[in-house]
Amino acid sequence: MKAMQAELKRIFKKNPVGIIFVLTLDIAEIVCLSLNPLVIGLCIDGFFERSYFWLYVLILLQLLLIVVRTINKFSDNRVYEPIIEDERNSYYERGIAANINESELSSRLDLVVRIPEFFENGLVEILDMFGGIFFSLVSLYISAATPLLAAAGIISILIFAFTHGFHKEIVQNNKRLQDSDEKREGIILTKEIVKYRLFSMQQRNFRIKNSDLEAKAYLLTDILQAILLIFAVIYALHFGDYTSGEVFTIITYIIMLNESVCMFNEAIIEIADLEDVVIRLREGRNEF
User: Fold this and answer.
1) What's the pLDDT tens digit per position in 1-60?
2) How many CB atoms lie within 10 A of CB 4?
3) Residue 13 carries which DSSP code?
4) Dihedral, CA of residue 140, residue 144, residue 147 and residue 148, to nearest 10
5) Could you give the CA distance from residue 109 to residue 106 in angstroms, rounded to a whole number?
6) Alpha-carbon span 217 to 165, nearest angstrom
7) Cα–Cα distance measured from residue 169 to residue 165, given in angstroms and rounded to the nearest whole number
8) What angle do the packed helices 16-48 and 123-142 form, to 10 degrees?
9) Contact at 8 Å (CB) between 232 and 252?
10) Predicted TM-score (pTM) above 0.85
11) Could you tell me the CA-to-CA distances from 61 to 48, 72, 187, 230 in Å, in that order?
């Protein structure tokens, strides 16, 4: 983990102002999207009372979201692509100078981009996940929906407990898949059809295993989240004294919570894969 943190810090230092600026835009977008269910719920209740204040707030929120997204799209590649280009060129030059074999060099050049791409995609997804969980739980707490809050907490813990083993195995399979991939070009250069067929079969088997593990994890997750969603609908409509707008907000935040919890184990896989990438690249640099 320390090696991964050091590598992320090294990448961050290449353009700290640009990375912070883009991440700030990402966080602003997450906040805007997370506030939508609350504001729409208040709009619904406002319509019944012939009040349009929250409609104006919703319009302003959407305009802000459009501006933030547009600036983000223009800024994103301009910040990260030069870093990716520099990392690839630097690793290639050192690899050539050290006479590293072509297959390993080719495979690791694909890995080099994963570290800056973590800032661009992986970190944003993790922030989105925590943002979704935070806004959902705060909304349920404010709505005084204690039974829903308790149920959401229990279901979230059960999902993690039941699916963690599957995702742990996926991480190991990803490492084996990368080990296999580093031998790809060497096998191609042998021009032996049998060896290449065995290589392709091995890669296929790892991907099928991961697909099966993901299917099992999603099955358990979907069942538990369906139970939570049905319970939330019944509770909000029959046991809670809520307005139409509040019911909409509560149910929407339950759905958001379900989506965010789904991302938790995927975030663990993302971090574990990134740690493996850092270790492989550091091993490669030690060979230079």
Assistant:
1) 777 888 889 899 999 999 999 999 999 999 999 999 999 999 999 988 888 899 999 999
2) 19
3) T
4) -20
5) 5
6) 9
7) 6
8) 30
9) no
10) no
11) 21, 16, 55, 30
